């Protein structure tokens, strides 16, 4: 038999130790005891419910179970799925931990997917295109670091690193 505890952020709802969510208090249109289905986002079950602050929020079910049955989460902690199955929200499968522990778990159960290595213009922080970098290398001997830095809107350090092939080394 499931054990039920209040959802801290949403006092009208309860979460079970098996990862189910239900309405526990009455109100207009409320179906007491009705288990909510929710949706799946990136393999994780989510539920959209009104919270205590009056806003409707989408919450991860595994985080609600962990908060209610596993002692909660400290700042900076994540919920680890010990068997690697994102849809298994039973409290015995969940444990608070660090991001590093979560990555080690994922490697152990073979679910780890490393982020793609992006360099050059595909890097999220890139402010220059590959064509601009080639142009900087071509112009650097004649114009110098300071003039190019103003012209391209980047720091002199960036221009110098490009010119000396410390960055963007994959380009000619």
Short description:
This protein is an alpha+beta fold and 172 residues long. It is built from five helices and nine strands, in the order βββββββαββαααα. It folds into two domains: 4-109, Alpha-Beta Complex (Homing Intron 3 (I-Ppo) Encoded Endonuclease, Chain A), CATH 3.90.75; 120-163, no CATH class.
Describe this entry's structure for a reader.
By secondary structure, the protein is of the alpha+beta class. It has two domains: 4-109, Homing Intron 3 (I-Ppo) Encoded Endonuclease, Chain A (Alpha-Beta Complex), CATH 3.90.75; 120-163, no CATH class. 29% of the residues lie in helices and 23% in strands. It has helices at 61-69, 99-109, 130-143, 145-152, 156-163, and strands at residues 4-7, 10-16, 21-23, 35-36, 39-41, 44-50, 56-60, 78-81, 94-97. The longest helix has 14 residues, at 130-143. 18% of the residues are buried.
Strand order of the largest sheet: 1-2-3-4
Question: Gap between N and C termini, in Å?
Answer: 67 Å
Reported CATH architecture of the largest domain? Alpha-Beta Complex
Helical residue percent band: 25-40%
The biggest beta sheet is recorded as: 4 strands, antiparallel
Class from helix and strand fractions: alpha+beta
State the CATH class of the largest domain.
Alpha Beta
* Succession of helices and strands: EEEEEEEHEEHHHH
β-strand amount: 15-25%
- Which word captures the global form? elongated
Feature tags:
single chain, 172 residues, alpha+beta, Homing Intron 3 (I-Ppo) Encoded Endonuclease, Chain A, 2 domains, four-stranded antiparallel beta sheet, three-stranded antiparallel beta sheet, 23% strand
């Amino acid at each position: 038999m499931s054990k039920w505890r209040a959802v801290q952020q949403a006092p009208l709802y309860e979460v079970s130790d098996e990862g189910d969510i239900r309405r526990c208090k009455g109100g207009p249109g409320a179906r007491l005891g009705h288990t909510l289905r929710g949706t799946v986002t990136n393999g994780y079950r989510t539920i959209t419910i009104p919270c205590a602050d009056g806003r409707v929020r989408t919450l991860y079910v595994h985080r609600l179970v962990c908060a209610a049955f596993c002692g909660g989460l400290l700042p900076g902690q994540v919920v680890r799925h010990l068997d690697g199955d994102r849809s298994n929200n039973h409290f015995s499968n969940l444990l608070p931990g660090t991001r590093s522990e979560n990555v080690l778990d994922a490697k152990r159960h073979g679910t780890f997917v490393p982020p793609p290595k992006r360099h050059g213009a595909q890097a999220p922080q890139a402010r220059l295109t590959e064509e601009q970098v080639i142009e900087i290398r071509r112009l650097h001997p004649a114009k110098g670091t300071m003039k190019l830095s103003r012209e391209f809107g980047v720091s002199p350090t960036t221009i110098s690193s490009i010119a000396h092939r410390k960055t963007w080394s994959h380009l000619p």
